Amino acid sequence: METIKILIVDDHQLILNGIAEMLKPFKRFKIVGKAMDGKDAVEKAIELVPDVIFMDVSMPVMNGIEATQLIHQQKPGIKIIALTQHDENEYVMQILKAGGSGYLLKNSKKDVFENAINSVMQGKRYLSKEISDQMINEILLSPGRQINDQEEIHLTKREIEIIRKIADDMSNQEIANELNISLRTVETHRRNLMQKLKVTTVVALLKYAAKRDIISLK
Question: Please, what are the domains in the chain?
Answer without folding.
Answer: 4-136 (3.40.50.2300), 143-211 (1.10.10.10)
